[in-house]
Amino acid sequence: MKDSRWLSLIVLCTGFLLIVVDMTIVNVALPSIQRDLGFSGSGLAWVINGYLVAFGGFLLLAGRLGDLLGRKRVYLAASAGAAVGLLAGGLITQAVSWHWIFFVNVPIGLVTAAAAVRLLKTDPVPATGRGADVIGAILVTGGLMLAVYTIVESSAWGLGSRQTIGFGALALLILTAFVIRQARISNPILPLRIFASRRVSASNLVQALMSSAFLGFFFIGSLDLERVLGYGPMAIGLAFLPVAVVMGLFSVRLSAQLIGRFGPFAVLVAGQGVVAIALVMLALGPVNSTYAIHLLVPLSLLGLGGGLSFPSLTMIAMGDVAPSDAGLASGILNTSGQIGGSLGLAVLATVAAGWTQGLLQQGVGAGAALAGGFHFAWFIGAGTIGATIVIAITMLRQRAQPSNEEIGENAAVA
Questions:
Q1: DSSP secondary structure code for residue 196 in this structure
Q2: Cβ(395)–Cβ(198) under 8 Å?
Q3: Residue 353: closest CA among 382, 377, 380
């Protein structure tokens, strides 16, 4: 029985690997995609945001379908969709060299689905008589897509243009309709009662802002490494490796020990401070950076800050939530990261493109102008982290240090 539970956990973690690979592998190929398809700097953000917005919007619907249809059935249907969608994308883009990245998840998805059929138990379906709020999922996804589109295109239209104001107002109207619908229907995919806790609301806001800074860093960093420093795809992937290694090391083991000793609030604020320092170091770096001198330390610090911040924030977000709402709160926190990351990425990409264009008009060379735009976006990202520190200090201060048992239970739910 114990071995079966561990195998089931491995299957679920492998399924989550599909999501992680989707969100990271494309970043390495962004410069090649931009070069081959002729995307603008801000327009390239759609390569990431098209996935993030759809994933974040329909993640709420998938959670509700899991309650209605059974989590194993929904899990298998997500695996199959990823494999088929990636295969189709690879075939469509076979004429370009980077299309093979879309095949990576096919064998992972097939093996994971086969293992899930054998190892995961089929949970009983509750006889609620209520369906999933498909209309709500369409409203939130459509509204977010329109908001991202407005942000990205505002650099061409102008912030005060009729297009920007009109599309922005329409996006806000759609999202408002989504909120009103969630407050009135009996089967919402986003029960608004969960936000009655100030700490839950503030935690989701911090999650959204931190995710925007991290996703913006990877997006802009890949372009800086290729277009300014001349790195190839493999070199870009290896350059980002310290972030993943350090973040994984602290997230898996060391963060829990620090949280148990100092409490999640102190660890969260410390992690946020480290992230802000790392982004400022990157922003202040020279145009022609040397990896070992100018990049290795801030990249490692970025992984350290993320490894400290995200687990701590999860503990804080779950602290005021009843056990019956723990899964819901965790799902909403993940959704906030996806949605906040997509909107923040659109803003940072647009800001970087606009700053670069302004430098070019001043006669600055192409390489220096590109680097100037990228570094300015990192300054904005550091400012965003500064805002999360203020929110954390004013709204998320811990009343009492959690016990080791509470830490283990919350970590298991998250």
A1: G
A2: yes
A3: 377
Q: What angle do CA 152, 309, 277 make, to 5 degrees?
A: 70
pLDDT at 82: 41
Closest to 206 measured CA to CA, from 49, 342, 390: 390
DSSP letter (8 states) at residue 251: I
Nearest to 59 by CA among 28, 22, 19, 86: 19
- The alpha carbon torsion through 153, 219, 236, 247 (nearest 10 deg) reads 180
Q: What is the pLDDT of residues 241-277, one digit of tens each?
A: 888 788 877 766 788 788 888 999 999 999 999 999 9
Tokens 């998840």 found at: 105
Neighbours of 390 (CB within 10 A): 11
In tens, the pLDDT along 124-175 reads 555 454 556 778 878 887 888 788 778 877 767 877 888 889 999 999 999 9
19/347 Cα distance (integer angstroms):
23
388, 399, 211: which is closest to 320 by C-alpha?
399
Global pTM value: 0.74
* Amino acid residing at 414: A
Give CA–CA dist 348/261, Å, rounded.
Answer: 36
Tokens linked to 126: 């509750």
